[in-house]
């Protein structure tokens, strides 16, 4: 079914369950939540990025049966590299508290944030602004507070800011809940893919996790100013709390498509390490953040990482004579170093195919 988005605007939002969109697994909707979902055609998706057509990353209802959830994650993830999860079990209060302390942090005076400011990308916990990514003269309108969480018990949180006063407590709880959700999604992926269920339990997920609070201020010229440049996430999996303000765009068939989320959903995307482990069955898809001229946008990302020394390559389960490894195994530390070099100093430049990058090494 292909509809134009006009004439049916009164229908309630239909959250597609895995069973209800099995024929294509792909849905579009117009920019308003309550607009009808549209099944996409390539023609529609080829419209300019600022058109009224938005991609709704496939919705995975985690209260469905385990089999259905597994299938929905795989179907949606294989097609887009992005899904959004609802009924995920994370209390709404924990989410609202996290948004509130994030807003409070960004409202602190510049002087109160100055001691946290650093452009040293090796510093695990720091405050930085878009200037960190200023490559080739591009400007990025973005401020970030990055909080590192080390294992086994989050000791590095002693470095987290002590102001606003509730930040440490709220962020710690939020980090543990969202990281738990990420680990559950990884277990579900294992089940769906036929990997042993503890595949992601060890070093591959126990590097320092990061909780990043992003503020994208409005810009005077959004057509010239991005919030984040096109990139793929280099980690294993990312759990993003998107804002009601749109801004995240996903590359699909060569077009930038607005990602739109339903209330209380987390947007989840696969990092490059998942692409490597699954030998390309799952793809890490390029995305970016655009700005607008009127409102600030806040988003919060939880990033699950491997340890620096963890060796990551395609899992044996996916390799046969007909399916040779498409990626080389390397430690996560080497991956980041090499990926940075190949990307001319920034992991955040327009990404070419990961396979091509590995061929150049
Ligand atoms: C990222 C990212 C998106 C957003 O930090 O890797 O893609 O909406 N963030 O902030
Ligand atoms: Ni990203």
Description:
By secondary structure, the chain is of the alpha+beta class. It has a single domain, classed as B-lactam Antibiotic, Isopenicillin N Synthase, Chain (Jelly Rolls). Helices cover about 25% and strands about 20% of the residues. The chain is built from eight helices and 17 strands. It has helices at about 40-45, 65-80, 90-105, 110-115, 165-195, 270-275, 330-340, 355-360, and strands at about 30, 35-40, 55, 60, 80-85, 125-130, 145-150, 210-215, 225-230, 235-240, 250, 255-260, 265-270, 285-290, 295-305, 310, 330. The strands form three sheets. An eight-stranded mixed beta sheet has the order 4-5-13-10-15-8-7-6. β11 and β12 form a beta hairpin. The chain is globular, with a radius of gyration of 20 Å. Mean pLDDT is about 80; it is low at about 1-55 and about 345-350. The protein binds N-oxalylglycine and nickel (II) ion.
CATH superfamily: B-lactam Antibiotic, Isopenicillin N Synthase, Chain
Helix content: 10-25%
- Per DSSP E runs of 2 or more residues, the count of β-strands stands at 17
Share of β-strand residues: 15-25%
How many separate helices?
A: 8
Mean pLDDT over the residues? 80
Characterize the biggest β-sheet: 8 strands, mixed
Multimer state: single chain
Number of separate domains: 1
What's the gyration radius in Å? 20 Å
Shape by Cα distribution: globular
The unique ligands bound to this protein are: N-oxalylglycine, nickel (II) ion
Which segments are poorly predicted (pLDDT under 50) over 5 or more consecutive residues?
Answer: 1-55, 343-352
CATH architecture group name: Sandwich
Provide the spatial order of strands within the biggest beta sheet: 4-5-13-10-15-8-7-6
Order of helices and strands: EEHEEHEHHEEHEEEEEEHEEEEHH
Q: How many angstroms separate the termini?
A: 45 Å
Structural class: alpha+beta
Domain Fe2OG dioxygenase: 206-306
Biased composition (Polar residues): 1-12
InterPro entries: DIOX_N (IPR026992), IPNS-like_FE2OG_OXY (IPR044861), IPNS-like_sf (IPR027443), Oxoglu/Fe-dep_dioxygenase_dom (IPR005123), Plant_2OG-oxidoreductases (IPR050295)
GO molecular function, one term: oxidoreductase activity
